[in-house]
Amino acid sequence: TWRIASLIERQVEAVRELVGRNRVICGLSGGVDSSVTAALLAKAFGTQLSCIFVDNGLLRKGERDNVEEEFTGHFKTDLHVVDARQRFLDALSGVSDPQEKRKIIGRVFIEVFQEEAASIPDAHFLAQGTLYPDVIESGANPDGPAATIKFHHNVGGLPERLGFELIEPLRDLFKDEVRKMGAELGLPDKLIWRHPFPGPGLAVRCLGEITEPRLDTLREADAILIEELHKADLYRDVQQAFAVLLPLQTVGVMGDARTYEDVIAIRSVNTEDFMTADWSRLPYDFLQRVSTRIINSVRGVNRVVYDISSKPPSTIEWE
Ligand code: XMP
């Protein structure tokens, strides 16, 4: 870890020199890369760092609280949590096409982020957690599109358009080095090993129309799956696991009564690079526990199914 510690020192020096007394903005997503970026910059700048976290209402359970705890409680940054839940819901109202959802979420995200960034005076720099593999993905031009892929997968060229100078303190690093750096900076294990989560969030796991009650159902079911994975010490054995809410009802029976309620699908994959993936051979008794808990405690769900498709030809997400 001495190597990581000295890497952190060097980066801290370098960004301090670059930024001087200016204010730096860092967009936080709740994921590993943006969190490590923010933690590094918090070490360099303290409250001279303004973090922006957009609550789009499409987050997993507890995500916003965790970010607040980490970046105001632990790291004392100037954290701006923007509650844009209603705005996203309104924009998504009546939309069920997946690509349409992505477009809308990307557009509203830019608007909200831009408004918040504009309210922070004297900020010239925008930091983002681009890693080395993201730089390579961009192909010939390392300052091209990939620089912004990370920021929000569906948004291109954002920092430039907003008139910021970009800082990417992780751009020479691979994921495992970023995780080590996060640990060295004092980020909790749970965050460092967090599964990837798509920019459009629960919107692409809530198949069909997005409504607040449907998002709540999905969020509760997903939280149970994730909690059980941690409890069974299986979370780190799979690379991505989540719940999906299907756009249909099926018949069930409860006591003497017939029910006609929602279906939750569980998706869990093992993968090296997310380009190909295999479905996780999770133990039957684990799946049994998850199913029972979801059906017993999530209102309006009477059936749980497990996705046994590999990528390709299926994708990891359902939308
Ligand atoms: P698929 O579903 O294409 O997913 O097999 C591969 C990986 O990409 C993530 N993913 C997204 N990430 N915006 C993102 O930021 C998106 O629109 C998006 N779609 C898929 C997915 O979660 C998986 O890790």
Automatic annotation (TrEMBL):
Signal peptide: none
A GO MF label: ATP binding
Annotated metabolic or biological route of this protein: Purine metabolism; GMP biosynthesis; GMP from XMP (L-Gln route): step 1/1
Domain GMPS ATP-PPase span(s) in chain numbering: 2-194
This protein's record includes keyword ATP-binding: yes
Keywords from the UniProt entry: ATP-binding, Glutamine amidotransferase, GMP biosynthesis, Ligase, Nucleotide-binding, Purine biosynthesis
Residues reported to bind ATP: 29-35
EC category: ligase
GO cellular-component term (any): cytosol
EC number: 6.3.5.2
Reactions that this protein is recorded to catalyse: XMP + L-glutamine + ATP + H2O = GMP + L-glutamate + AMP + diphosphate + 2 H(+)
Function: Catalyzes the synthesis of GMP from XMP.
Record note on quaternary structure: Homodimer.
Name used for this protein in its record: GMP synthase [glutamine-hydrolyzing]
First and last residues shown, out of full length: 217 to 535 of 535
